[in-house]
Amino acid sequence: MRKNLFGRLLLSAGLALAPWLAVLWTTLPDPYPAQPWRVAWVGLDALEIAGLLTSAVLVRRSGYRAPLASIGTAVLLLVDAWFDVMTAGHHVAISLALACTLELPLAALCAVVALRPPVVAAVRATAVQRVALYV
Q1: Which residue did the predictor score with more confidence, 118 or 120?
Q2: Whole-angstrom distance, CA of residue 29 vs CA of residue 32
Q3: Whole-angstrom distance, CA of residue 47 vs CA of residue 24
Q4: Is the separation of the CB atoms in 40 and 34 below 8 Å?
């Protein structure tokens, strides 16, 4: 029951936001000066660092939360690559190079980590079951 309700709510929200794209496209100015520019970019990169470090720790510990941290980090890296390229101005070649060699490969790695089956947890469970048989 809840799964259907949540699914319907998410579908409705996604469909309701589609017209909003047209509003944004027609009303937002092309050039827009952002006041806390440095804080925004440093904050985004700090979140990426936190995500990468958290993912690394959870993967090494075979934590069940590793996929959540990894997919969140992948999304942050994709957003960073997108905004780097879109706001690069005449430095777009450098931004594209960084996106293609750093941000997108790291995002792909995070996605692979998030989608891999929990083999380590299954192996540990099997070992525990074997020990339990002998006790």
Answers
A1: 118
A2: 6
A3: 26
A4: yes
Joined together, the tokens standing for residue 36 give: 């806390």
Other C-beta atoms closer than 10 Å to the C-beta of 29 total: 6
In angstroms, the Cα distances linking 5 to 1, 10, 11, 17 are: 6, 9, 10, 18
Tokens for 86, please give them: 């879109």
Q: What share of the chain is helix, strand, coil (3-state, %, to 5)?
A: 85, 0, 15
CA atoms within 13 A on the CB side of 107: 16
pTM flag (> 0.90): no
d(CA 82, CA 23): 21
- Token pair 């579908």 is found at 11
Tens digits of residue pLDDT in 21-76 = 888 889 888 887 878 888 988 999 999 999 999 999 999 888 889 999 999 999 99
What are the residue ranges of helices labelled H in the chain?
A: 2-27, 37-60, 66-86, 92-98, 104-115, 119-134
Owner of token pair 């490969």: 105
